[in-house]
UniProtKB/TrEMBL annotation:
It holds the Pfam family Cu-oxidase_2. Belongs to the multicopper oxidase family. PANTHER family: BILIRUBIN OXIDASE, CUPREDOXIN SUPERFAMILY PROTEIN. This is Multicopper oxidase family protein. Residues 91-200, 225-312, 370-486 form the Plastocyanin-like domain. It comes from the Bacteria. InterPro entries: BlueCu_1_BS, Cu-oxidase-like_N, Cu-oxidase_2nd, Cu-oxidase_C, Cu-oxidase_fam, Cu_oxidase_Cu_BS, Cupredoxin. Keywords: Copper, Metal-binding, Oxidoreductase. SUPFAM superfamilies: Cupredoxins.
Length: 489
């Protein structure tokens, strides 16, 4: 159903006055020690074109749960955090140290747990030797706090982002969005969870605490020394689960809530536990109207899905595996229950907002121009220009967008489409209904080659200004497959 073969060559070009820095599809530039003991990245061509992928014994590392960040200060209505952006080394492959870019020295970055209706302020300090920024993916925030690709934190500088958390409880994530560098920075490790929680949803009695587990999935290629290789996407055959290659996770014989995030640059995960029921309860924008039992969930780059898995029937029957298709990526070691499981999944969760009458319909076409070297990513036939507004949207308006993937053979690219600022509902695909992975409130939706997806969204936002919409394969957005909408009064 899903085409997962991709090709892209990244190179030096200029898009609307915005320089896109060079990548060559080879080994990522080396990280070399600095005087303070950290590492400094250097952009540029790399020498190793035919790197071999490291081999390792699978399921020898325990899957970590990303640490929860503690506020450095709290006020009556705000939790304040500080987080450096810096280089580090991480044991992604057993026994090897990989140079990475991190939030707070962690790969995956620390989880920020926010409370609906209570503000969060996160101050990032850029300790890298290159500009960076931070985008809260799925966040309803003002333009100046959205991490616009041209709104950067210079090396040595500090930037505070304010997040109101006035939206539904949901699984969001924060990541780099520096134009031309976003693919490199995310690939190296600039990603982390941001969870908005709502006390009112505790009435559902879903698994919580140690049984509410965020799991970040992404892929990578490594050389024999454990260094990351930025090569052809199909060569990224090693899946990292919370930053570990094919780890294991001890679980008790009870229900768990797993918050699954696909942070891969270019991959679609087809997740299953060998036929074990997966109770889907949430998507990008929070809880669904009702749980849906499936045996497989499909998650494209940037998407999130939440499932509840009951391990009680499997105690004493050996390990279970989380598969991507037929490839095992995580082993579950099931032990007897560690106490009475009082959690459950109710028949009714949170209704979707009613769809208002749309007053505007638009068509958004994503495509690659492969006649150029390097190729150019296009939206409605034009590459990203930070000085151009592509769409003006009236504040409060309801619109239907027809998202079209115009790429065809011999380059049948697929494109996950992402909007900043708000979530949408999927009305259907091509001339038919939507797919199971389209359910709920979405901010990212997969569009296959020559496919189309109809979405509807209401711009009931207090904010005016410019926001991005783009392909969420960062290698494509780095080549220009981005555009700007402006919310006007």
């Amino acid at each position: 159903m899903l085409n997962r073969r991709h090709f892209v060559t990244l190179g030096a070009t200029v898009l609307g006055g915005a320089a896109v820095l060079p990548f060559t599809g080879d080994l990522l530039p080396p990280l070399t020690p600095t005087a303070n003991g950290h590492h400094a990245g250097h952009m540029g061509s790399a020498a190793l074109a035919d790197a071999t992928t490291v081999t390792f014994a699978p399921f020898t590392q325990r899957m970590p749960v990303p640490a929860t960040l503690t506020p450095s200060q709290t006020t009556a209505d705000t939790d304040i955090y500080t987080l450096p952006i810096r280089t580090a080394e991480a044991e992604l492959i057993p026994g090897l140290r990989t140079p990475v870019l991190t939030y707070g020295g962690q790969f995956v970055g620390p989880t920020i747990r926010a409370e609906k209706g209570r503000r969060t302020q996160v101050t990032f300090t850029n300790e890298l030797d290159r500009p960076t920024n931070v985008h809260l993916h799925g966040g309803h925030v003002s333009p100046e706090n959205d991490g616009h690709p041209m709104d950067l934190i210079a090396p040595g500088q500090t930037r505070a982002y304010a997040y109101p958390n006035a939206q539904r409880a949901s699984t969001l994530w924060y990541h780099d969005h520096t134009h031309g560098l976003e693919a490199d920075h995310i690939y190296r490790g600039l990603h982390g969870f941001y969870l908005i929680e709502d006390k009112a949803e505790r009435r559902f009695n879903l698994p919580e605490g140690a049984y509410d587990v965020p799991i970040m999935l992404r892929n990578a290629q490594f050389d024999e020394n454990g260094a990351l290789v930025f090569g052809h996407p199909d060569n990224r055959t090693t899946t990292l689960v919370n930053g570990k290659a094919q780890p294991y996770l001890p679980v008790a014989a009870r229900r768990y809530r797993f918050r699954l995030l696909n942070s891969a640059l270019k991959h679609v995960y087809q997740l299953n536990i060998g036929g074990v029921p997966l109770t889907k309860i949430a998507s990008d924008g929070g809880l669904l109207p009702a749980p849906v039992e499936q045996t497989e969930v499909v998650v494209s780059s940037g998407e999130r899905v939440e499932i509840v898995v009951d391990f009680a029937p499997h105690v004493g029957h050996g390990p279970l595996y989380l598969y991507d298709g037929e490839n095992p990526i995580l082993r579950f070691d099931v032990s007897p229950a560690d106490g009475r499981d009082r959690s459950g999944v109710p028949d009714v969760l949170v209704p979707l907002p009613a769809l208002a009458a749309a007053t505007v319909e638009r068509t958004v076409v994503m495509s690659m121009d492969m006649s150029l070297r390097p190729p150019i990513g296009l939206i409605n036939g034009r590459p990203f220009d930070p000085n151009r507004v592509d769409i003006q949207v009236m504040q409060g308006a309801t619109e239907i967008w027809n998202i079209v993937n115009a790429d065809v053979s011999p380059f049948p690219f697929d494109h996950p489409f992402h909007t900043h600022l708000l979530q949408f509902q999927v009305l259907g695909r091509d001339t038919g209904p939507s797919l199971p992975e389209d359910a709920g409130l979405k901010d990212t939706v997969y569009v296959p080659p020559l496919g189309s997806v109809r979405i509807q969204m209401t711009f009931d936002t207090p904010y005016l200004g410019r926001y991005m919409y783009h392909c969420h394969f960062p290698e494509h957005s780095a080549l220009g497959m981005m555009a700007q909408m402006e919310i006007i009064p």
